[in-house]
Design a protein that fits this description.
Length: about 50
C-alpha cells in the first residue's frame, strides 16, 4: 500500500500546546489580548461616535 517509512518514535518532539510556559509569559499574553481588544473595540466605538 504505502512505501513510506513511518517512525513511531516521537522522542524529543514537542508540539506548541504541550510546551510549558511561565506565569510571566501568560501575563504578557493576557496584556497583549487586552491591548488588542481595547484597540479593536475602542476604534470601532470611536468611529461610531460613542
Amino acid at each position: 500500500m504505502d512505501d513510506h517509512d513511518h517512525d513511531d518514535g516521537d522522542e524529543g518532539r514537542v508540539t506548541a500546546p504541550m510546551q510549558e510556559f511561565t506565569t510571566g509569559e501568560a501575563g504578557i499574553g493576557a496584556a497583549v489580548l487586552v491591548v488588542g481588544l481595547v484597540l479593536t473595540f475602542g476604534l470601532a466605538l470611536g468611529l461610531v461616535g460613542f
